[in-house]
Input
Amino acid sequence: MKPLVELKNVVRLYGSGSNQIQALRGLNMVANEGEFIAVMGPSGSGKSTLLNVIGGMDIPTAGTVTVDNVTINDMSESSLDDYRLNKIGFVFQSYNLIPSLTAIRNVELPLLAAGVRPRQAHERAVELFQVVGLENRMSHRPSDLSQGEQQRVAIATALANNPSLILADEPTGNLDSKTAESVVNYIQSIIREHKKTLILVTHDSSIARKADWIHIIRDGVIVSRIRPSDLDSAVSSYDEFLSVRIDQINDEIQLIDAKVKQGDIDGSQYMELRGVLVKTLEVLQSELAKRGHI
Ligand SMILES: Nc1ncnc2c1ncn2[C@@H]1O[C@H](COP(=O)(O)OP(=O)(O)OP(=O)(O)O)[C@@H](O)[C@H]1O
Ligand SMILES: [Mg+2]
Output
């Protein structure tokens, strides 16, 4: 299998000094041609940053991002524009359609931006409506379409310039589970048929199960790469790890409570230690609350 996307030691920092946030902290990842990769991870773990960096919408602070044998962090602004327009199809949680334009005009836009003549752009857009099964909705405005239909128009828009890579950031986040499933089935059959690579961020494990691989991201690094059939055991072993740590920290809190009563530690030491433990406990408990999101 040929790698299409390769990230090496990618770091993305935001801000500076004590306000600095490390959104990506030395992330490594490979996506091979034709693969469907689901990315799962808690809120704030760096999923959107990862897609933005791959899509050339954000430049890493350090490390390299190579797509289709080209290192994109070395590209000029104009090559990056070209890259975003022709190599990548983006699908977001909100459909990013222009409300005042009909569905077909929305799909024609990226084609016209890429220099395709209006007549050809129209023909290609009609073809794309067939691909997403919405031939009879082309002249509707987005507000006259259901959410699932709007997302299918957004998929047609993403496919317009025939990109080799589709990046989807929670594309079903706004949809009910049945519509979500049908939208993902559309994306999946299109990428299989047209041999595209798909990197899709989701919180929904039933969607992630459709992928070839699930990459789990935590604190800005990919911590594991598993097959969908291993998802349940990965979730339960992580839950178990969290539960054990929570028990340990509760024990430690009891211990320092006892120590301060006996005078083994003074009040300020106690407050400091307790503060750290309680904070850690909160983080672990909120992680556990996101069970299944892994
Ligand atoms: N433009 C920015 N400026 C400052 N901090 C940012 C910026 N973009 C992202 N971050 C921070 O980087 C971290 C990763 O954010 P990111 O949006 O990639 O997370 P995510 O995994 O997509 O989360 P969610 O599941 O909530 O969408 C977070 O701490 C976030 O607050
Ligand atoms: Mg996000």
The radius of gyration is 23 Å. The pocket of adenosine-5'-triphosphate (ligand 1) is lined by residues 14-15, 21, 23, 41, 43-49 (CB under 6 Å).
